[in-house]
Design brief:
Blueprint (H helix, E strand, L loop, with lengths): L1 E5 L6 E5 L9 E9 L3 H8 L8 E2 L4 E8 L11 E4 L2 E3 L19 E2 L11 E5 L4 E2 L6 H4 L5 H12 L6 E3 L18 E5 L8 E2 L15
Parallel strand pairs: 11-12
Antiparallel strand pairs: 1-2, 1-4, 3-5, 3-9, 5-6, 6-10, 7-8, 12-13
Bound molecules: zinc ion (2 copies).
Length: 215
């Protein structure tokens, strides 16, 4: 298979041929449809040291299940799934056991300390995957696996009530996601022209629907 590979710290990013990975007992093998390119990929490529090298980049992947490990019961071949940044957690620390495994100090991450999604095939623990409905264009929804997940996590953590409001600072790749997804609150962003004095509700405020986001 082909995989977008960072061979060494601050090395070139190249497309390399690799063996198709073999899923472990609790893993799923995905045939990838699309993977977003994130600024974090560039950040990883700029690091002086890598915990895994060569490493396949990418943590915004959409794919279909090709095969599952012997202990996987909730995913079947043909299911559609999304890969996020979180690859593994320890499962035993206070954070992991209280539903906050994304803050686990012992986590590994796709495209950084675990091989990522920017390849024809990728392996991920079944427990880390999110279900993706058919009919949603992979290239458009792939960034939801990073920017969307991050932003919605922040809103969830803040326990914003349905119908409440949130203020978004830094209205970029992450900031726009809550306003284009199932945000439980309306979004208010600083005006580009008068960031200190003028506030506005985006033209497409926080829809609460199941329709796919637009790119
Ligand atoms: Zn990202
Ligand atoms: Zn942990």
């Amino acid at each position: 298979m082909k995989a977008v590979t960072l061979a060494s710290p601050r090395g070139a990013i190249t497309v390399e041929s690799r063996d198709v990975p073999v899923p472990g007992p609790r893993d799923v093998l995905l045939r990838m449809e699309a993977c977003g390119v994130c600024h974090s990929d560039l950040f990883v490529a700029s690091l002086e040291k890598l915990s895994l090298a060569p490493v396949t980049l990418g943590h915004e992947g959409i794919g279909r299940v090709e095969a599952v490990g012997a202990e996987v019961t909730d995913w079947r071949p043909g299911d559609r799934a999304g890969m996020t940044f979180l690859a593994t957690v320890c499962g035993a620390c206070d954070l992991c056991t209280t539903g906050r495994g994304r803050f686990c100090a012992k986590q590994t991450n796709f495209g950084y300390s675990a091989h990522g999604a920017m390849a024809e095939y990728a392996v991920a623990p079944a427990s880390t995957l999110v279900r993706v409905p058919d009919g949603m264009p992979a290239a458009q929804i792939a960034p939801l696996c990073c920017a969307g997940w991050t932003a919605m996590g922040a809103i969830s953590e803040a326990a914003v009530a349905r119908g409440g409001s949130v203020a978004l600072f830094g209205f970029g790749g992450l900031g726009h996601s809550p306003c284009r997804s199932r945000a439980p609150a309306s979004c208010v962003s600083p005006s580009r022209t008068s960031p200190r004095t003028s506030w506005r509700t985006p033209a497409r405020p926080a829809p609460i629907s199941s329709s796919p986001p637009k790119p």
